[in-house]
């Protein structure tokens, strides 16, 4: 058993692509199958080496491991040999129509209310006409003659699926410059590299019909393959995701401070009835079943991912995050703040709050109370250094002195000390901030 994830290196991987990568990796792990990373770089115009590197970095960041990697650009002779076999059996035929001619034919068929399917005119040209076209300098490109019937398969996600081949144009498999198109390359690779399970996006359903037909023409057995087409992931507004826009790329999420474990847990459960929990890859794989993924399109929900990210971050140890924390941040600081951030990147702000300098808002209505608070602030001395009891000591004294309780007591203090309405327990922050910083901020807020 062997699976593959086959992205084209035409941009940054987005969460939709990642959904497929995660599904393949989990399915492979669950069943002890091989996992191939295939770089679909047959489109030389759009493929870029930097994106090949980016894909590997993004998948590694997610914690996904592949057993081998192949690039389609390095397998051209295999595709040429397959094309030769198809030519030999009469399934590949040369075409000379230009794009304009094809467009005119398509428009005519549409006006005649016929489906805009290629009319196979080139299948009927005589050898003389072909020689004439070539003598006129035309170089053919090659189409595959599809069968007449229906292709069916049992899809692990979509259930019984079918593609009616007569309603599809014969696909071009070889361009005039001799380069092969993805449709053929993918079939040759799946056959020759021993793939058994194809888990990919729903955008490939028609391709599956066509590719199964090509596969049979190449002597392959369609029943060797199991397919699962997962619905496409939409952005929060219900729009399409694109490798050309950065918004929901893995790189952007990584820079924003999303934890890979949270993202993998989120994507693994997306579109299933199970609530996402922060689980390890091994835990997710032990129960992963692609058949539980719903047929309906799924929408990316940043709030849900952030909630999961918060839970993941909360459970991370200082050792796990130490290299990603602001310079100087201590374990005490991490333990005080980790339950209060959606993303690790927010740590920079909290480190400024407790270990750096911020300017708290002036609280004109609270000047008297803040000066009273300053008065009641316990000393921080070598004999009695500030500790986790200092906060209670201070606020109890202040309560007695001011007669305030609850929000009226705590809110002006929080705002003065952190500049924020909410945040980690001040009991924990106070000893890290130290007397000088705390008294300075109380004075600033009261000035
Ligand atoms: N929005 C999406 N949701 C889920 N899967 C997707 C989405 N877009 C693409 N995929 C899947 O990602 C995998 C990698 O495909 P591919 O690299 O062709 O992505 P793409 O985003 O469609 O890019 P391109 O525009 O270059 O074709 C395929 O299985 C494809 O079906």
UniProtKB/TrEMBL annotation:
Protein's organism: Lichenicola cladoniae
Motif 'HIGH' region: chain residues: 7-17
The protein, known as: Glutamate--tRNA ligase
Name of a matching Pfam family: Anticodon_2
InterPro entries registered for this protein in UniProt: aa-tRNA-synth_I_cd-bd, aa-tRNA-synth_I_codon-bd_sub2, aa-tRNA-synth_I_CS, aa_tRNA-synth_I_cd-bd_sf, Glu-tRNA-ligase_bac/mito, Glu/Gln-tRNA-synth, Glu/Gln-tRNA-synth_Ib_cat-dom, GluQ/Sye
Family: Belongs to the class-I aminoacyl-tRNA synthetase family. Glutamate--tRNA ligase type 1 subfamily.
Main location: cytoplasm
Subunit details: Monomer.
Positions of the Glutamyl/glutaminyl-tRNA synthetase class Ib catalytic domain: 2-305
Motif ('KMSKS' region): 240-244
Protein's job: Catalyzes the attachment of glutamate to tRNA(Glu) in a two-step reaction: glutamate is first activated by ATP to form Glu-AMP and then transferred to the acceptor end of tRNA(Glu).
Sample GO molecular function, one term: tRNA binding
EC number: 6.1.1.17
